[in-house]
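Hello again,

I reread your note about wanting to compare the complex against the isolated chains. To keep things tidy I'm splitting this into two emails, and this first one only covers the full assembly. Below are the input lines as submitted, including protein chains and any nucleic acid or small-molecule components. They are followed by the predicted structure of everything together. The single-chain runs will come separately.
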Amino acid sequence: MCMDYDKLVKEFGAERFEVMPDELKDLRMAKYIVSHRDFLSISKKPFAIVSGRGPSGKFHLGHLATFMFVKQMQDKYKCRVFIPFSNDEKFLLRGISFEDAQNYAMDNLLDIIALGFDPELTDIIIDLYNLPQDLYNLAIRVSRKITYSTVKALLGFTSETNIGLSFYSAMQVAHILYPTMKYGLPSVVIVAIDQDPFIRLTRDIAEKLGYHKPGALHLGYIPSLQGEQKMSSSSPYSAIFTTDDPETVKKKVMNAFTGGRETLSLQKEKGGNPSICSVYAYLDLFGADTEQIKKDCVAGKRMCGDCKKELITLLNAFLDEHRRKREKSKNLVRKFLK
Amino acid sequence: MCMDYDKLVKEFGAERFEVMPDELKDLRMAKYIVSHRDFLSISKKPFAIVSGRGPSGKFHLGHLATFMFVKQMQDKYKCRVFIPFSNDEKFLLRGISFEDAQNYAMDNLLDIIALGFDPELTDIIIDLYNLPQDLYNLAIRVSRKITYSTVKALLGFTSETNIGLSFYSAMQVAHILYPTMKYGLPSVVIVAIDQDPFIRLTRDIAEKLGYHKPGALHLGYIPSLQGEQKMSSSSPYSAIFTTDDPETVKKKVMNAFTGGRETLSLQKEKGGNPSICSVYAYLDLFGADTEQIKKDCVAGKRMCGDCKKELITLLNAFLDEHRRKREKSKNLVRKFLK
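Full-complex prediction:
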């Protein structure tokens, strides 16, 4: 599966950054920003960030990287962050049990809280756990503006789609407009680019309800360890989960797809290719000195084994710390689920 | 508009009472019970009553009579009563403003509380005001079992129907199953017979979710003062509202359709026809000695003016008392909206 971002951006009518804004370019996720909507105008004044989580499994490093980015944005802009957990959608879409839909949400919640979000500036809502009345009311107001034929055309629903999933479109729009309704702040949605149809739907509804149209930062996918474009929770060697123990992390990294040559001597002669290397991508995301690594790799002075060892050390130190924070997060849940 | 109850009962596959059960026959609304589903089996053990209110205007005597019946059922069976207010549906269906959907609910709530429901045994939920998380969760579980093609076939929705209204089908099913989910009590729904499609849908879903199938008591309509089969909130002389002042009540009753003859002398000679008389119907519902009235009317010994005078006195005394209780209800709202 290879996503053609250029095609999507063009098809969706989103904007490219001609020059990456200063505030974003020093963030490690900046290179994953594919496109945006109205970010430059909205970010001039106070705004809120909306970035949801659809909990259908455990948290992996791809999920974590996105929310690390959201947290960095909160620090940079001192902005309100709203994190809706759409476990209703996952229950309706995936056929998981109701209990799993709740358990995954509670589990993932700890990973997010562990990243250090400011509880005063962060609202987390789990649709099937602490849905506020005013969010349901907003979803109802939104739903009056959306016909079945709209969701059919936009999202590919059929007459056999359950009515919960159709209604969830309204709930998702309500998630995006919630900070605007509640605090009068325009929303910037941080989201994978393939979710843009919801942004377009929301911009349309926002206008009808008299709210500020939401903006967006569209993210591309963090590559999988196997070199696919996107990490998959179902393929065991594709993703590292936040709860993986050091030995598992080691195994997965040792099996990872790299940009190295077939043999050591070829690598020394011709150099590797960091741009397709999943190990390089993770070293970059988790804070290694990749400028030097890149030079050495391309020059044939650094072997894949060195990078893998460095990544194993880096990730295990990071995850060790993350798991400690994750344990402490259990005491903070109430602060976030207001 | 004349509803053919026989046809509906047959078409819907509901049951007629061969003999009206003792517990019901002494209730003044008994003659409005058209049919039922499983009432005789469910009422042998503890059960809950569900009877909803769709607040799209002020309360009139037709609404009041239904809830007086529900209250009498609570007294008789000491049963739990659940009264869901579907102001979400009214907002989605009627195009009323969001504010009106809330205001009508709060207004109608006072009329219901004024009837003397036991707060310990009565749950009132206004969907857009105090929707409990567990009711939303139940609606989501229900919605996974209903496709768009089902609501299309059952309720006549089209692709231009808004997705909120489609989803409301799941919410209504959840309303009916709520006491079963929450307290383990099978529900008996007290409802106008034309709402039976929702009962059938709920019985189907209940089975799929492993809940006891709800039963029902189907009510026919209280006639309008103008002799139509159903009171209408939009036709000013058709219904008496609980907030009508004594002078208005007098005017409406004086204008009411009766079973009387064209002239006094013809009435004395041939007698009147109580079975088509709206004034007689209201005297009956609000506790007059209708056995004697009927005899005298048919015998030509009682004129329509007498009946109208008696009804004006009766209703104004009743409404005077009701409005007093309605005022006091304002202090009880919190007890019911748990």
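For quick reference: The domain at 246-326 of chain A is CATH 1.10.240.10 (Tyrosyl-Transfer RNA Synthetase).

B.
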